[in-house]
Every structure is written in structure tokens, then in C-alpha cells.
TrEMBL record:
Keywords: Cytoplasm, Initiation factor, Protein biosynthesis. The keyword Cytoplasm applies. This is Translation initiation factor 3 complex subunit L. GO terms for biological process: translational initiation. One of its GO terms (molecular function) is translation initiation factor activity. GO terms for cellular component: eukaryotic translation initiation factor 3 complex. InterPro entries: eIF3l (IPR019382). It comes from Helianthus annuus (Common sunflower).
Length: 362
């Protein structure tokens, strides 16, 4: 089926509430080598909410490999604002693929990162566009969506959409808001980690128990993203034991065919776990799965011994090497002259409660 035929059929399946077709067509569209142009789709379906959804797909599709222009970045921001404001009312009587919901929230944060890096490199050029992709408005949009997630006393309501998400299915109108609320909470955690607001990020996930098996662990990509940033925030706050506990839970189980991005996060979590255990080795036998412990010793045993050695210079070198690979691509609303994380740390005092780690890295 040609890509344009897939687009038109997807539009019809959403309007006609064909759940199985919708999920299949979305996957087929994302696997297409090329997508129809925005102009062609707009002419075919009109300037409606489905077109806004398609614009979002078009910007993040793997086939759109060219670096977006400055005007395209601005257009994408306005598209997301319209999409997040109009999406929930529009699908109030429709089913929707879980993977699509997660993909659009995840890409929203990716584009915020990219634009923030551009703004930091040349703040004078972007001065007149201070509201576009600003930290304030990005957080505001995500916070509004996060409010859709049920309160703790209503958390059983979320069980059904998470079960459907595990099968890569679609959610009905009752559960779309729950899924968007949860995915937006994860996105908030991620954004706050990128900005160095670790405690605020952790607060975004409370009072949820993200380790609850079969509830928050259903959607693999979301679960890996959550645990990486949740563990990282605890690590940077000095809560090494909590970070070890979360990393151990997800790493001791082999994940089924994770995507490339999720595999990178799993690798980063192994590095962070090695660092945490080097800072408090006495908890390894109690908190770390035996098989995972053997794997860590095989891959990081020498580095862990060096980090615990009395040679401060050698230990610092290993800490820096592992952490430079393990931490996320930080961003900041301020200008900086280079991409060196140490400059960012110094600027925003990224170690407010972790003096030991600051000494090791800076």
C-alpha cells in the first residue's frame, strides 16, 4: 500500500473507530521509507486535527533525516501547542494507539532539547522568540496533561489501559486521558532531570509506586525511560540506595527487543549502577540480583575497583568516564559557550545536595 493510501486509511480508521486497523496502519506509516508531503496531505484531508497529528508524525519520522530549519522548529512548536490543547476533546469518542500517544510526548521533549541547545549557542538570534520552546511553556503544557492522570485513590482505573498498552493496542476514550496523563508525568520527570531540578522531577512521580509490577511496567519504552530518569534523579540527589534498588529491578530482567534509544538507556543504567555501588559497596549483596552482580563485575569490575581505590586521580578519571556516558544530554535556558557538562554544572549548581559527586567530577 502506498504511503498516501496508508495516511488516508488511517484517517478513516480513526474517524470510524476501527481499533485494530488503526494500530496496524500507524505502525505501517512509521515503517514507510518516505512520507507524503505536508502539502499533499493537507489537500487530501483538510486543515483539521488529523492533519495536525500528521504534521507531528512527519517531523519525527525516521525518513525525515535532514536537520529541521529554524522556521520548521518554530512551526513544530505551534503544532504541538495546538495538538495538546485540542487532542483530548477531539478523541473524546475515539480509540487511539498507545504507542502513538507515547511517541508524540517523547518527541515533544526531544524537540525541546534540540531547540534549547540552539538557543544556548546563539541567544541573541533567538531573543525575539523567547516564548517558543521556553522552559516555562513546555512545563506548563506537560503539567496540564499530567493532571489527567487519576489520583492515588483512583489508580486502579489505570490498570486496564496499561494492560492494553503492553499488547501495543489502542485505548478507548475513557483511557486516553489516563495514558496521556501518565506519559506526561514521565516527560515532566525527564525535563526536570535535563534542567537539573532533580527533587522537582521526583515529586512529579509521587505518590505513584513505579515499581508496581504489571501496572507501570506494561509499556516497555515508557518504563525504561521512567526508571532511567527516576534513578538518575535519585543518584544526583545523593540517594544512592534508592537508585541502586530501581536500576537493579529493571536490569535483572532481560528486556524483550528494546529499541535503540531504550537500549542506550539500559546501558547507561548499568554504568550508573556501577558508580552507585562504588560509592556504597556495602549494599551490593543485599540489593543487587546475584546474576546481575556477576555481569557487572565482568563488565565493570576493574573500573569499580579503581573507583574505590586510594588513588584519587585514577578514581576521578573513571568516574568522569562512566558518568560522561551515563548522564542525559543536559539543557539549560541560559547561554553557554560549549557542550561540556562541567560548565553546565557550574552554571546552575547542579549538585545542590551531592557535594561528594561534585568533588569527583568537577
Amino acid at each position: 500500500m502506498a504511503a498516501m493510501d496508508v495516511v488516508l486509511e488511517l484517517c478513516r480508521s480513526i474517524n470510524e473507530k476501527h481499533e485494530n486497523k488503526m494500530c496496524t496502519l500507524y505502525r505501517a506509516l512509521m515503517m514507510s521509507y518516505h512520507l507524503p508531503s505536508l502539502e499533499d496531505v493537507k489537500q487530501a484531508v483538510g486543515n483539521n486535527i488529523f492533519y495536525t497529528l500528521y504534521v507531528e508524525i512527519w517531523y519525527r519520522h525516521p525518513g525525515s533525516s535532514s536537520i529541521p530549519t529554524f522556521l520548521q522548529r518554530l512551526a513544530s512548536w505551534h503544532s504541538y501547542r495546538c495538538l495538546f490543547q485540542d487532542l483530548i476533546p477531539w478523541i473524546s469518542d475515539r480509540r487511539f494507539p498507545y504507542q502513538w500517544l507515547w511517541d508524540m510526548v517523547d518527541e515533544f521533549v526531544n524537540q525541546f532539547q534540540s531547540f534549547s541547545e540552539l538557543r544556548a549557542k546563539d541567544p541573541t538570534k533567538l531573543k525575539e522568540y523567547y516564548e517558543d520552546w521556553s522552559v516555562h511553556y513546555v512545563l506548563l503544557l506537560l503539567e496540564r496533561l499530567a493532571e489527567l492522570f487519576p489520583k492515588l485513590e483512583e489508580k486502579d482505573v489505570a490498570g486496564e489501559p496499561m494492560r492494553a498498552a503492553a499488547a501495543g493496542g489502542c485505548c478507548d476514550s475513557e483511557h486516553v486521558s489516563i495514558a496521556m496523563g501518565y506519559f506526561s508525568k514521565v516527560a515532566l520527570l525527564r525535563v526536570h532531570c535535563l534542567l537539573g531540578n532533580y527533587q522537582t522531577g521526583l515529586d512529579c512521580m509521587r505518590p505513584m509506586d513505579i515499581t508496581q509490577q504489571g501496572f507501570y511496567t506494561r509499556h516497555i519504552a515508557t518504563h525504561i525511560t521512567t526508571i532511567y530518569h527516576y534513578g538518575f534523579a535519585n543518584f544526583m540527589s545523593g540517594s544512592y540506595v534508592e537508585a541502586i534498588r530501581e536500576f537493579n529491578e529493571i536490569l535483572k530482567t532481560e528486556q524483550q527487543q528494546p529499541q535503540q534509544k531504550e537500549q542506550r538507556m539500559l546501558d547507561k543504567m548499568r554504568d550508573l549502577l556501577a558508580v552507585c555501588l562504588s560509592l556504597c559497596p556495602e549494599v551490593q549483596l543485599e540489593l543487587v540480583d546475584e546474576r546481575l552482580g556477576y555481569q557487572l563485575m565482568g563488565n565493570h569490575g576493574e573500573n569499580m575497583l579503581r573507583m574505590q581505590s586510594c588513588d584519587d586521580a585514577d578514581a576521578k578519571a573513571v568516574f568522569k568516564e562512566l558518568l560522561s556516558h551515563a548522564w542525559p544530554r543536559f539543557t539549560t535556558p541560559f547561554a553557554r559557550s560549549s557542550g561540556d557538562p562541567r560548565e553546565f554544572f557550574s552554571m546552575v549548581r547542579i549538585f545542590p545536595s551531592n557535594e561528594l559527586l561534585a568533588i569527583l567530577v568537577l
